[in-house]
Amino acid sequence: MSLTANLLRGLGSLVTKSRRRDAIIDLMPSWFGSQSVAVSTGKNEFVNHFRGWDYVAIKAICEAVAGMSPCVAKREDGNEVASSYRKSLSAAKSFRERDAIRDQYRRKYLSSQAKTKALAHLQDSDELTPVSNTHPLMRLLRNPNGPDVAWSFWYKVMLYLELTGASYIWTPPGKADDKPKQLWVIPSHWVYEQPGDDELIGSYEIRPSFGQIDATGFGAGWFPGAGGRERRPASEIIKIAYPNPHSIIDGYAPTWATSSWTDVSNNIDRSRVQVFANAAFPGVGIELDIGTENPDPSTIERIQATFAEKYSGVRNTGRPAILAPGMKIIPLSRTNVEMDYTNSAEQARAHVLAGRGVPQSIAGLVEQSTFTNATAARFNFFGSTISPKLMLIGQIMTEKLARRWDENLIVYWPDPTPNDPEMQLKKAETLARLKANTPNEIRESFGLTPWEYGGDDPIGGLGEQPLGWATGEQPMDNMAESLMGGMGMDGGDEQQGQQPQQGGQQEPGGDVVGELLKEIGGQS
């Protein structure tokens, strides 16, 4: 039985859903099928180029993406959330209750800073509610299938996307519904798109380059060329592809776009190998006297052995050479052609890395670097190379996968672009000096847990009171309520209607608090 049959068969059939007809089909030529075969055939060549500097650059990209975990959140109407939030604050009966409402809101929804860092298309009024870790989609993304973990799964997604311009994720449907229970990355050079009657791509034909053979008497094994073929409906395949200027079907392979630079780099390496394998590299030459007859091979070997014995090696470095009359030692230097290998190789390497958007320091070519230079390189790499790719993958996974559970679910990655630590600190200090931020905003910007109470108002200098403008509360009311709470008079249900202490006397300090509240009320 073929590899594809082992992977794809026996998992139930997908319930066919009515789909609107893709109008673009009317413009597609009848040779769509042969075009797909030609494109997929070329992908085999792209996969073979996962070596050299292409390997270094692609490996850096794949490891960067594989090391980040995707997030799943539910999109909600921000206007409705804000209205409900204000009503809850207005209905609160105490300062602590309002703090609890704010804390609950903060825990349920992403902060404005985290929402800004989310690589997703959002409206300014949208609110995002992260789903629970027990959500089926979260569990699926954490453990896509048996052999793969999340790291290896996303590594493969980026690997084929960078090599061939397209990645294919197979989502075998569950037995009870169309929600997948596993995710598999199918090698792109195995996949051939097939047109549909009412769809641009009606199905995918999988042609593995190797498969499993059950040989009677010899056991089973995996062998090249034994894959066979299997066709799966388009609804089971999630295709992630780079835009292609030549086709609306297939993705555009970066390997093809930089093929000339890759060929130059590979040919330089091949030439170097041939030179080292076939060329001679003597350090010096010994010129004999012009009158010396042509020496026979044994004489040449005797002269070479004598010279090497006396003058080669570490201990003989700098030892004076005594030669026979007429003999000369001639140093042999590298030719200009040999020296150009270094210059050409460095230029080809720079072109390949630039084509992939990988700085040299990310590729491991800079041994010594300052923290500022390393941060700048990471900023360029993650901001210009990684973030756009994560945005593309997140949008496609949202449309093709997350919406199988809920129309409002989205898959996204937080923007990995690092902040400038010095600039971040200066910004926080400036805003704090102008009383334009709150303690919790400062803490969140530095990755610290927000304070549950008292961190949502700007704080002034010593002797100044919290400014209630951010939360819409009156500072005087909060101060009075805090004082009452500190003296055991916070007005809670458990203290309302309490009787004076024995002897009919009030609690110590009660008159002081009352006079203070009268004074505050008179000043206000």
Describe the structure.
With 524 residues, this protein is of the alpha+beta class. The protein has a domain at 271-338. Helix content is 44%, strand content 12%. It contains 17 helices and 13 strands. It has helices at residues 3-8, 32-47, 52-66, 78-91, 95-108, 112-117, 136-142, 150-164, 254-257, 259-278, 297-311, 336-356, 371-400, 421-433, 439-445, 475-486, 510-523, and strands at 71-77, 126-130, 166-170, 184-186, 191-194, 203-206, 210-215, 219-224, 230-233, 237-241, 284-287, 328-331, 409-412. A 3-stranded antiparallel sheet has the order 2-1-13. A hairpin with a 3-residue loop joins strand 7 and strand 8 (219-224). The longest helix has 30 residues, at 371-400. It starts with a helix and ends with a helix. The relative contact order is 0.12. Mean pLDDT is 74; it is low at 1-20, 24-38, 218-223 and 489-514.
